[in-house]
Amino acid sequence: MAEGTTLIVDPSNAEQARAWDGDEGTFWTERADHFDRSIAEHHEPFLAAADIGSADDVLDVGCGTGQTTRDAARAAAAGSALGVDLSSRMIDYARLRAAEEGVGDAAFVHADAQIHPFDPASFDVAISRTGAMFFGDLVAAFRNISRALRPHGRLTLLTWQPLPENEWLRELSSAFAAGRDLPAPSADAPGPFSLSDPERVRSVLGAAGFADVELQASSRAMWFGTDVDDATTFILGVLGWMLQGLDDDGRARALEVLRDTLSAHESAAGVTFGSAAWTIRARRL
Fold first, then answer.
1. Are strands 57-61 and 80-85 parallel, antiparallel or unpaired?
2. What is the pLDDT of residues 128-167, one digit of tens each?
3. In Å, how far are 130, 142, 203 from 208, measured between CA atoms?
4. Which of 118, 224, 261, 284 could join 231 in a cystine, given CB atoms 3.0 to 4.6 angstroms apart?
5. Residues 113, 136: contact at Cβ < 8 Å?
6. Strands (DSSP E) along the chain, which ranges?
7. Separation between Cα atoms, residue 18 and residue 265, nearest integer Å
8. pTM exceeds cut of 0.90
């Protein structure tokens, strides 16, 4: 997308665009290294599963601040990597970081991958590290990605397993609840668990033109900060909206429980929680 043009999004992605192209995108951009470190134990196995060849052209969907795009471009030294994201701030940061690191084959576009007019059959591999779960219409989005892939092109995704398997969000949500009965994140709506059910994954990708869908489970630690204070600041920026509706006393109780929870997970390595993900691989028909 050219500089100065307006982001065009599918109506089903309008709410996500407001968040990611607004304060949420700004928070992630300002803490890019912190976010990359938080998911670092998943990163290398995810890229290994993508099996990017030196001459591959790679599409990175929901690239965020661009770590996955930069590393994909390094692996595809004789090819290319294009990162796409709804957040203009993260895209600007990704471009700057790629230039600073001298990754010349990494390009970035501020766009909605669900409807962006990619050149047909122009990529060998499409990847997404925890960025593909937020589409308003998953089938339409993956159908658009499928069209952008060459015949038999590969798709590799990192998504979360269901909430009960993910200690990090389960325990942090419990802390923020402060005795309230907060609803669990939906597995049927855009969000972190929209691709957590293997049968739904197979159904969505099959309807979008993919075959040979495989899911591999993994459990790894997620890092949230060097100590309790660092982790508290970070988590309030990510999940602080869960405090909405609490009075001053309720908020104070929730923050006390949060710090106790973080203290129980603090070690010499920092504050860490367990996480469980799927590595999903498929091929375009």
1. parallel
2. 999 999 999 999 999 999 999 999 999 999 999 999 999 9
3. 19, 6, 9
4. 224
5. no
6. 57-61, 80-85, 106-110, 123-129, 149-160, 210-225, 266-267, 270-284
7. 33
8. yes
Tell me the C-alpha to C-alpha distance, in Å, between residue 116 and each of 8, 142, 143, 212.
Answer: 8, 12, 11, 25
| Spatial separation of the C-alpha atoms in residues 49 and 34, rounded to whole Å | 23
For residues 210 and 23, give the distance between their C-alpha atoms in angstroms, rounded to a whole number.
35
As a whole number of angstroms, the distance between CA 9 and CA 200 comes to: 24
Query: Rounded CA gap, 80 and 264, in Å?
Result: 44
Residue 140: CA atoms inside 13 Å, Cβ hemisphere, count? Answer: 15
* Domain architecture of the chain: domains with CATH: 11-163+186-225+274-284 (3.40.50.150)
Torsion of CA 119, 14, 16, 90, to 10 degrees: 60
Q: What's the alpha-carbon Rg for the chain, to the nearest Å? A: 19
Residues contacting 76, CB < 8 A, separation 6+: 52, 53, 54, 55, 56, 57, 58, 105
pLDDT tops 60 at residue 178: yes
Of 80, 64, 35, 71, the closest CA to residue 50 belongs to 71
Instruction: State phi, psi for 273 to the nearest 5 degrees.
Output: -135, 155
